[in-house]
Amino acid sequence: MGILAWILIGLLAGIIAKMLMPGKDPGGIIVTTLIGIAGGLLGGWLGKIIFGVESVDGFFELSTWIAAIVGSLILLVIFRLFRRSAR
User: Fold this and answer.
1) Which of 8, 32, 60, 70 is least surrounded by CB atoms within 10 angstroms?
2) Is the pLDDT of residue 47 over 80?
3) Exposure string (b/e) for 37-56, b if CB count within 10 Å is 16 or more?
């Protein structure tokens, strides 16, 4: 997948993660995209380590989207914990 596909997946996975975990988050579309991209990488890595499968196969594969969304949810929880403790 190209870099534009990763950015698009990151943006959409970050938005979906924020919709699944509603709440007030600082940051806008840039933070959402960065969380989504990093979440996609984290989800793909965890899928490979835990399940021993290549979870990032292609843009239109369901496993790619599930890995990106799960990874984004994990990072969103961590992001919220750090933002809460910093206040």
Assistant:
1) 60
2) no
3) bbbbbbbbeebeeeeeeebb
